[in-house]
Amino acid sequence: MGRQWLHAKRLVAGAKKAKTNTKLVREITLAAKMGGADPTMNARLFAAVEKAKKDSVPKDAIQRAINKGAGVGDDKLTLEYVVYEGRAPHNVPVIIEVYTDNVQRTAPEIRVLFRKGQLASSGANKFVFDNVGLVEAHHPDATIDPEEAAIEAGANEVEPLTRDQNDDIPVGAAGAKFICERTEVANVSKWLAANGWTVITSEIGFIAKTFSELTEAQQEEVGDFLHALDEHDDVHRVWAAIK
Known about the structure:
The chain has helices at 4-35, 43-54, 59-70, 103-116, 146-153, 185-194, 216-231; strands at 80-88, 92-100, 121-122, 129-139, 157-160, 174-180, 198-208, 235-240. It is of the alpha+beta class. It is globular and about 45 Å long. Residues 8-71 form the TACO1/YebC-like N-terminal domain.
């Protein structure tokens, strides 16, 4: 085969990077639409732009995404927000957030993914989740007290966040997930940024109230199903009641 395998590997890596960049650009657009075009006044946009820069998304692509979301110029945002609810294999509740320019195309594609998931099924389950504000951040001082920061920032809860859970956390830094009211996301993010924390993500999301107990083999099956959902171009976030 010679070096054909290397060429194939590069093609796969390139395709994955393109998909990642598409989702990063979409997040920038949505953040600008929801909170305005100024990253210094929009914590979600600031976090999205920083992540895009880290992943080498071109500056002009970032600016176009901001303009599109903010309604600047001729290229206006036409995406529709849709939430799908269902069960992953082994009855694990899931919520899928989608942004699409064609619901009639996306809806049947999501249904096909559920059918391919064998034991997966659609159906209402939002009652299993709390809809909250989520801010992930890291601090260069590994000895800092995240609980004290959470109180000062106005968050309700805080959970440790390791590099294994989010590779945006530098080695030796303290990572944390701050959970707050939906209306407090911007305030929590701004306080953290002003007090030495680097905000990685700042968004409204879902946290399960209870978690499914699964064997290792079952976890792998659920993981494969969730990965297939996340790979869909229109899927923005996948939330599941699994640790």
